[in-house]
Amino acid sequence: MIGVLALQGDVREHLRVLEHLGEPARPVLEPADLAGVNGLVLPGGESTTLSLLLSSSGLLGPVGDLLDAGTAVFGTCAGMILLAGEVSDGRPDQAHFGGIDLEVRRNGFGSQAASFECDLEVDALGSPPLHAVFIRAPLVERAGAGVDVLARLPLGPSGSVAGTGSPVLCRQGSVLVSSFHPELTTDTRVHRYFVEMAKGA
Amino acid sequence: MDVVDAGQAKVAEDAGAVAVMALERVPADIRRDGGVARMSDPALIEGIKAAVTIPVMAKARIGHFAEAQVLASLGVDYIDESEVLTPADEAHHIDKWPFTVPFVCGATNLGEALRRISEGAAMIRSKGEAGTGNIVEAVRHLRSILGDIRRITQADPAERYAWAKELAAPIGLVQELAETGRLPVPLFCAGGIATPADASLVMQLGAEAVFVGSGIFKSEDPARRARAIVEATAHFTDAALVAKVSTGLGSAMPGQEVAALDVRLAERGW
After folding, report:
1. For residues B66 and B71, what is the distance between their CA atoms, to the nearest angstrom?
2. Across chain A, what does the average pLDDT equal?
3. Using an 8 Å Cβ cutoff, are A189 and A125 in contact?
4. d(C-alpha B95, C-alpha B184), whole Å
5. If you write DSSP's letter for every residue of A107-174 in order, what string do you get?
6. What is the pLDDT of residue A89?
7. Confidence category of residue B262, pLDDT binned at 50, 70, 90
8. Do A111 and B77 touch (CB under 8 A)?
9. pLDDT tens digits for A29-50?
10. Out of B100, B230, B234, closest to residue A113 by CB
11. Per CATH, which fold does A2-200 belong to?
12. Has the ipTM of the complex gone over 0.85?
């Protein structure tokens, strides 16, 4: 059973991909919803809002416990910010779990109008390239030595995208993060990869 | 949440708002003051942008593509082509396709929603009646939009053409929602939300998020009410939680009977 944190953000889109993969999934709104969960998705949304709601719903501790226990956790966009070790341009009181040794800059590519799409080469997923949608995405400014960088922004000919070459899909142990939104495209390979992680954990 | 200065924007962000709408007057004050309501001063928008880390929206008048160009140049995250401001064009909305900034537009019914989407709107909000603190119009508009979507999903394929004609909407969009059962863009709710229970109501009716205009800063305790509405929107099916956050909130904004209004903002838009 995969849980999808359902306090705010694109919850339905993650649930739909997991359903498409035939993977049992449930929305998580309170600690009791984590019972029997062997993988947890932290969706895209607004990380400041998610942080507040994690705290008020009593989920902050239990989600931290899941991470400590080595349960597979997948954060997309705002979910990546919540899982990162260090966050800049966030709010000083913003909660983050430190589940993966990354420094991320919130809205690191700019405002909404600077959102973009591109194709990524991801060896772990094979061919063809993965089409990725970045929306007010976080920018990974440093990945620790223990982090496996699965994809980077390509060195595109446009050269206009800040952060070219920066990590966009990373894994450290049981934690997977993407600065893009694999739940918004029809390519299910990233979710399948995560489901396999959850089963292997 | 609607905010008129950096201080209010901070209150909204602290409460968990996912975005703020930067404007010079909240709709209740626009309604009270009368006259022509226009795009806000860029300095006000810049000040609010500098104060918060969450997305900042701003309003352009219906059809006023030059105001929208100005807002885009300021780097706002979303533009609301809004009936709360005085329309600049009585026949045409902004052609939103040339813009890279996403637009949200109001709608009172499905036809209006689909026309706005065909013009390039990336989000739809049911209009309600802004500045009244009265939820009745928001409920009417949401039920109209979602009820017609449900009916179209049940329609015979041949009947979709008649639906497109009746709605004055592109047949392609009617066919798409007949297949998917939902708008191709998010549907939000605006216009009259004043309490946590109002937020729960419209979320249960099928809204995907809630715009609170005058409801926060025209209430007795804006910070607490803002937080309570955020909680109620997140946990909208949890009545016990809505009860808890509704307790001792102080008075809501003063409400207005819709029948007694001189100006119906929702009637603006074509």
Report:
1. 9
2. 93
3. yes
4. 18
5. TTT-SGGG-EEEEE--GGG-SSPEEEEESS--EEEEE-TT-EEEEE----SS--STTTT-EEEEEETT
6. 87
7. confident
8. yes
9. 999 999 999 999 999 999 999 9
10. B100
11. Rossmann fold (3.40.50)
12. yes
Q: Is A160 on the interface with B (CB under 8 A)?
A: no
Distance from A84 to chain B by nearest Cα, in Å?
18
pLDDT tens column, A145-197? 999 999 999 865 555 666 789 999 999 999 999 999 999 999 999 999 999 99
- pLDDT bracket for residue A142 (50, 70, 90): very high
User: How many angstroms separate the CA atoms of B169 and B124, rounded?
Assistant: 15
Residues 6+ apart with CB under 8 A from B174: B114, B152, B160, B163, B164, B167
Tell me how far apart the alpha carbons of residues B16 and B239 are, in angstroms, rounded to a whole number.
20
- Per-residue pLDDT tens digits for B153-206: 999 999 999 999 999 999 999 999 999 999 999 999 999 999 999 999 999 999
The pLDDT of B15-36, averaged and rounded, is 93
Query: Domain segments of chain A: what residues?
Result: 2-200
B212: helix, strand or coil: coil
Smallest CA-to-CA distance from B52 within B23, B79, B12 is with: B12
pLDDT of A123 reads 96
Where does the pLDDT of residue A96 fall: very low under 50, low under 70, confident under 90, or very high at 90 and above?
A: confident
Question: Would the CB atoms of A136 and B55 count as touching at under 8 Å?
Answer: yes
Q: Specify the pLDDT at position A163.
A: 78
Question: What is the 8-class DSSP label of residue A181?
Answer: -
Q: Across the interface, which of A7, A29, A48 has its CB nearest the CB of B54?
A: A48
Q: Inter-chain contact B54–A46, Cβ cutoff 8 Å? A: yes
Residue A32 Cα to chain centre, angstroms: 22
Looking at the DSSP assignment, which residues form a beta bridge with residue A102? A143
Tell me the C-alpha distance between B30 and A22, whole Å: 51
Q: How far, in Å, CA of B268 to CA of B84, rounded?
A: 8
Classify residue A185 as left (phi > 0), alpha (psi -120 to 50) or beta.
Answer: beta
Tally A–B CB contacts below 8 A: 53
Total residues belonging to chain B:
270
User: What is the number of other CB atoms lying within 10 angstroms of the CB of residue B14?
Assistant: 16
- Nearest CA distance, B18 vs chain A (angstrom): 6
Q: Which of A7, A4, A10, A5 is nearest to A180 (CA)?
A: A10
Taking a C-beta distance cutoff of 8 angstroms, is the pair B212, B233 a contact? no
pTM equals 0.94
β-bridge mates for residue A143, sequence order: A102
Residues 6+ apart with CB under 8 A from A137: A77, A107, A108, A109, A115, A168, A179, A180
Query: Tokens 């991470």 appear where?
Result: A67
